[in-house]
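Case study 2.
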Amino acid sequence: MNDSYIKIKRFTRWLRFGIVIFCTLLLAVACHRGDSIPVNDRIINTACRQVEHAAGVTCIPEKFERLVTLDDAENAIALGIKPIGAVISDFSSYWQDKLTGVKNIGTIGEPNLESILALKPDLIAGSEYQQDIYPITSKIAPTVLWKFEHSGQWKEVFKNISVVLGKKEVGQKVMEDYYRRLAEFKQKMGNKLSKLKVSVVRVYPNNINLYLLDSFCGTVLQDAGLSRPESQNFTASEAKKLFGNQIQMSIGNELIEKADGDVIFIWTGENDAKGNQTAQKKLEQLKLSPLWKNLKAVKENKVFFVPNYWIGSGILAANAIIDDLFKYLVNTP
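Prediction:
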């Protein structure tokens, strides 16, 4: 598929949506008097509170009922709120049973604006990288976008979401449960905890990446009291200066020793089936390499293959990682 085709397809999609918005506004003009043009009556008639966010200031309805999330619905679901629409992807598979009745509004980074409009939301929530569509979504319903520089900031984001959605106390309880589970993990690990260096590796179709201290999974490992190999022991600020990326670094097969540790957690995972197949093939090739076979974790059979929620960004994925820590480090000899 060439670039021209993609550009035409995107232009067509935006033009079609623009026509829908235009017709909606015309209908609103026909049905209302005065200078204002309300797209959604509930926005006008519902009490709201001013919230400052990544795209500006929005008046959030005190009693919203039809939430649409431009990202995964994970954090809202953890707070006991089921959106009417959300992006549902392979990353949602771990909590798929909680998504019954939630309309899939598109793919990561490309929510379908027509689908959002059809759902008639009274609140839309997303991340700051979606600011390009904010002028449109904010006309459909009040829209709030979270500041989200990288996945290691997930706890701050979850706290902000819980406050904006009026679930501050619920959010605090959820995080208390998270730390309670980690305390139990530390207690069961005992003296083994301080002796383990945990490596985190992702195999891409064209390279191998190591996930660092302030990555999403890296923060969970820190909270669990687990140490990292020196090759992965970089904070976000250090990593940005050294590698141009705050949470991960790339290595070639010839530097695979940097992926070693007492334990290796490893996964593949792309946004499409073709990418996944290519990454899986690269992983199989890697496992045949003499350099890979010479790693300490490989020799001691301490390499564990895990799902892609290890690169998540929410509390449900964090708890899924804790499940894996119990499974592979506590319950495995």
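The two ends are 50 Å apart (CA to CA).
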